[in-house]
Amino acid sequence: MFRNYLITAIRNISRNIGYSIINFIGLSIGIALFILIMLFVQDEYSFDKFNANYDRIYRFEVGDAEWVHLPSAMGPDAQQWFPEIEQVVRFKALGNYVLKNDITTYNVPNAMLADSSFFNVFTAEFILGDKNTSFQTPNSVILTEKMAKIFFGNENPINKILKTQRDLDLVVTGVIKDFSNFHLQIDILIPFNILGVMNGAEYLHSYGTWQFQTYFLLPASFDNKNLETKLEAKFTELWGNDLKEEKLDLTIRPLKDVYFADQTKSDFGTVHGNRNTVKLFFAIGIFIILIACINFINLATAKASKRATEVGIRKVHGGYKHQLITQFLSESILITFISYLLAITLVQLFLPFYNSLIQKNLSLIDYVNPWFFAISICGILITGVLSGIYPAFYLTAFSPIKVLKGEKTKGKSAVILRRLLIILQFTISVALIISTITVQKQLNFLKNADMGFKKEQILAIRLNPGITKQKEAFKQKLLNHPEIINVSYSAGIIGTMGNTESFDFNSDGEATSIQLHSIDPSFLGLYEIELIEGRNISFDNPGDQKQKIILNEEAVKAGGLELGKAAGTVFHRNEWYLTALPSKECEVIGVVKNFHYRSLHDAIGPQGLCWNEDWHRTINIKIQPENFLNTLKIIEQTFKEFAPEVPYEFTFIDDHIDNLYKSDKRLGQFFIYFSIIAIIIAILGLFGLAAYIAESRTKEIGIRKVLGSTASNIILLLSKEFIKWVLVANIIAIPIAYYGMNKWLQTFAFSIKITPDLFLYAAIISLFIALSTIFYQAYKAARSNPTDSLRYE
Q1: Residues 575, 675: one domain?
Q2: pTM
Q3: How far apart are CA 33 and CA 739, in angstroms?
Q4: Which of 641, 659, 677 is the last residue of a domain?
Q5: In a domain, 264, yes or no
Q6: Which of 258, 283, 316 delimits the end of a domain?
Q7: Residue 9 and residue 68 share a domain
Q8: Distance (Å, rounded) from C-alpha 435 to C-alpha 759?
Q9: CA end-to-end span of the chain, whole Å?
Q10: Is 240 found in the same domain as 136?
Q11: Is the residue at 266 inside a domain?
């Protein structure tokens, strides 16, 4: 029986090869895209799951992941107060960290300081060394397998020395396997206690500066909300004088939610995904398969009259309804199966490009297992049945007597369904078009937004000890070249600036948290940041260093000061000794206009600028636009002269700012590709349906032409209904797309407004696509010989 169904299905497919090809192309593209999206979804949800304690690890935060960098004392004190906290591990991301041995000097991308409890909390597979002894001394270092190969090749690196830029010897005590899908980005691990050696023992247990990510290991099935309440009460008691009326909002976030906590600010040394983006991609994958299934349903019901005779004959010869339904479903499942095989080929073909787009290294072979085949079979059956179920029941409902008498089989319900399905197809397509235009307009806005500073023709280089020892000489050597306009030192790169610190500016006992950033007197001029009150820090006033601060407008407002009278304010500090402004008595000497020290996702918050050369890690260089390449060579040569062993790397500030929107740009690219794919599939279905409608109305067209209808009349006749459906689709899609895009734009503190012209563009594009698709079939029908048309059927 199955063999008979299969043979009949193959015959029907080959008999209607044109329509079958449309179904094959549409379904294979839809399934391929869905598989690619599912690879992405699976990978995103696999983050951090390699950890054996995955369900017991929590991150300690302030607010809803608003601040994840805490004082060094906060975690250990919490553990001391509450013994249910089994382990505490603190991290400090060092970012790029230059290490060298006799053979290699390498800028390690992700260096991380961590407590020795790291190996009791997180899972790391040791290739060499032992987790219980590898972190015994502060100057030890554990390398990932990749880093071990870079520095030592195939040699055993244990007990070998790597030197830091400050000539500190680190002893390799272990090698671990590279981490995969870990939200913490780690290439090397250095003991947290090294901070005590470098900065003093008090640095390891201080509330003076917020720089450290802190994680807890809690018992299984633990009530973390209860612990949150107890921690809030304890720290509120500790900080009561500073908090006043403010509520301390502490969060203990489960590890399973950390990767998707993308609202985190200044979450250095980590990567994050966006759960809403993952869900959106999954939904789009479903919608695109749905568009392909709609093509199948529309074409199958449209061709019903051609298959009505076959159904009638089968019924007369004893064919049962369930047998006929099985026959039609077998046909749709066979088409889906062939499309699936084509889709797998497309996936393999486009996977390298897809990986470059999403910046991952996905491989289909990694997912080939019994579950993959089981899910694939289920997917084929579901898609095949979804595509074929309505046509099967619709076709088997025909009365054999009416069919064999030659009565019309055109069902009103099928016509209505076809219209609804075409509307649904174009609703999805139009919504994607609107989304694509919105995302591109927002990206263009971000690219051209006024950041409050000049970002063009400026490059940043990471400071190193070779230059640190001769900073002024290095600066003067550069400025001797007329191609170089200005040079400034700062703690970090503008656009990702700031270390959170608290100040009581007006002595009312209420602390204001601000982002404090260390600069030098050349910084404001180099970036053309506007000073609106007071004065800049000055090389002529050495007392400005470590004692004076410049606020932005937002800090003046938040600190309870009055704009125009803020300069000259003197204030006192506690917990001052480990900060970028290490003075008990400080003075506000100026106010700058608000500028964006982070991406436009974030509102401009309170910010302070001070001058502490001990904190400087970045060289900012502004150059002339002329002789661009030659100027870059001059900078490189000067750099090599002062730091010959350090890899020369630089970042253009405008590129750095653009990179802050990397995930948004990727989303924009995805929407472009999703829209194109959805439109292609919809076009295929519309083309096939227009061909069928033109064919089914051949005699009517012939009569109209005999009675005097022109070609343009015929084209309008065949096009106007499709135009009406597309317009209805636009009406439905507009509010849906508006709601979705408005929610997305709300993730930015600064964004475009969704205006009516955006919907007009989408309507014009969708109508143009529909008309272009229909025009060929309509034109062909309009140009046909009426004599031939009247002989049709």
Answers
A1: no
A2: 0.82
A3: 25
A4: 659
A5: no
A6: 258
A7: no
A8: 10
A9: 34
A10: yes
A11: no
Tell whether 530 and 635 lie within a shared domain: yes
Q: How many domains does the chain have?
A: 3
Burial environment of residue 247 by CB neighbours within 10 A (0 to 12, 13 to 18, 19 or more): exposed
Note whether residue 452 is domain-resident.
no
268 belongs to a structural domain:
no
Q: Would you state the pLDDT for residue 684? A: 82
Radius of gyration of the chain (CA): 34
Residue 374: HSE in the Cβ half-sphere, 13 Å Cα cutoff: 3
Same domain membership, residue 437 and residue 366: yes
Q: Quick one: pLDDT at residue 266?
A: 63
Long-range contacts of 474-479 (CB under 8 A, 24+ apart): 474/619, 474/638, 474/642, 477/638, 477/641, 477/642, 478/621, 478/634, 478/635, 478/638
Cα within 13 Å of Cα(317), Cβ side: 8
* Residue 339 contacts residue 331 (beta carbons within 8 Å): no
| Three-state DSSP state, 185 | coil
Q: What is the pLDDT of residue 631?
A: 95
The first and second tokens of residue 319, run together, are 């064919």
Q: Which domain holds residue 178?
A: 57-258
| Cα dihedral 666, 670, 676, 677 sign | positive
Quick one: tokens of 331?
């046909």
675 shares a domain with 568:
no
Q: Is the dihedral of CA 16, 18, 24, 27 positive or negative?
A: negative
DSSP 365: G
Beta strands of 30-131 (E only): which ranges?
57-62, 87-100, 105-114, 126-128
Return the amino acid letter for 547: Q
- Residues 576 and 614 occupy one common structural domain: yes
- Block means of pLDDT (10 residues each) for the chain, 793 residues, are 63 72 86 90 93 95 77 92 95 87 88 95 95 88 96 94 88 95 95 84 79 93 87 81 65 93 72 88 88 79 60 60 73 85 92 90 79 79 78 63 54 70 89 93 91 94 86 94 96 78 73 87 96 95 91 92 91 66 87 92 91 91 92 95 88 91 88 89 80 70 72 76 89 95 90 92 91 78 62 51
At 84, give phi and psi (nearest 5°): -65, -15
Q: What pLDDT is attached to residue 764?
A: 94
Give the DSSP letter string of 393-446: HHHHTS-HHHHHTT-----HHHHHHHHHHHHHHHHHHHHHHHHHHHHHHHHHHH
Q: Check whether residue 560 and residue 679 sit in a common domain.
A: no
Q: Identity (one letter) of the amino acid at 551?
A: L
